[in-house]
């Protein structure tokens, strides 16, 4: 009879577990749907773009990942390749991405049961007076108080040594999708961190290319100005010689000297602007001022405009923009958090299990009849939270609406 009852309890426990697993496929809250992107019926082209076709023709080919390689400038390529590991803004975004990945690992760990091993030893000395008092009360109620009282007066509780080791496990049955929504939100926020880092990297790479090309332009202008200064100096000497020979007037000499002074006055301005551009590149590279002077002070040719500029399809431009992709990932995470907050209103079911050995003697700890185990579900139902759950749900819904409004606005 006892075996039948034990078997029945085990069957009931197994049925509860199977039912919990089947119900774990449900998830409350809204599912994320990608917002529809808007694009104009016709791509508008500015007049300047039409004029630029004389030098470079935009094509619908996908731009390469290393887009700066189309300039065929080894120095620019070397700087761009070092930028990702040296720029401080990119490094900060990379660390934020590492934090998001860690949060994803934490959220994903809750989907699985946790398992822990434990071992303990405890020496306990219980009260002898308490035992004697209990024995006397029991003896009086049973009608044998005199015999029990006489035996209890000389009895004492020995020192008890309790040894225990075993395994403990706990798993939350995700009936309402709280854990899955939490993992979904963490994954979406990690994607947003990836896109944020990508946006910062692309912006810094474009800024570096612009500063580098501007630097080469200034250096070329400075070279031409120096050549003009040398020519103006020669013309001044020639005018002075002709003046002393009586071939020209003093006005011609003054005009030549004024042109020489004007050209000389331009050189310090170019030198200052060149130094500022080099310092700007130092800042982008995360280097102290002057670190790249030896590398960049040598004048080189201005990178040529490529004959064809791969820009991709205009209709796909919005999908390639990191800020739009980041905003979409943020909306995904906010939507998943709404479901997570909604699941907190429902009962939380946890299955706890443990298996180990317990004994009052260390020598008996390894025997099979010293085993002890437990398994069973526990249910927690929120009854009164003072409006915390409702406030949290409204906050998550407001955050979702805020993210949706960012997606809806024209970029």
Task: Write structural notes for this entry.
The chain is of the alpha+beta class and 411 residues long. It is elongated, with a radius of gyration of 40 Å. Helix 3 (74-86) crosses helix 7 (178-244), helix 4 (88-109) packs antiparallel against helix 7 and helix 7 (178-244) runs antiparallel to helix 8. It is built from 12 helices and 6 strands. The protein folds into 2 domains: 23-111 and 175-345 and 382-408, Outer membrane efflux proteins (OEP) (Up-down Bundle); 118-173 and 347-377, Outer membrane efflux proteins (OEP), CATH 2.20.200. The protein has helices at residues 2-23, 47-52, 74-86, 88-109, 128-142, 145-153, 178-244, 250-284, 293-296, 317-320, 322-343, 388-408; strands spanning 57-59, 114-124, 160-173, 308-310, 348-359, 371-380. The model has no long low-confidence stretch (mean pLDDT 84). The strands form 2 sheets. It has a 4-stranded antiparallel beta sheet with strand order 2-3-5-6, with helices on one face. It has a two-stranded parallel ribbon with strand order 1-4.
Overall shape: it is elongated
Which class do the helix and strand fractions yield? alpha+beta
Top-tier CATH class of the largest domain: Mainly Alpha
CATH topology of the largest domain: Outer membrane efflux proteins (OEP)
Total of helices: 12
Secondary-structure element sequence?
HHEHHEHHEHHHEHHEEH
Percent of residues in helical segments?
A: 55-70%
Strand order of the largest sheet: 2-3-5-6
End-to-end distance, in Å? Answer: 75 Å
Radius of gyration: 40 Å
If you average the pLDDT, what whole number results? Answer: 84
CATH superfamily of the largest domain: Outer membrane efflux proteins (OEP)
As residue ranges, the low-confidence spans are: none
The major sheet is characterized as: 4 strands, antiparallel
- Total strands: the figure is 6
At CATH level 2, the architecture of the largest domain is Up-down Bundle
Approximately what portion of the residues adopt beta-strand conformation? 5-15%
The total number of structural domains is 2
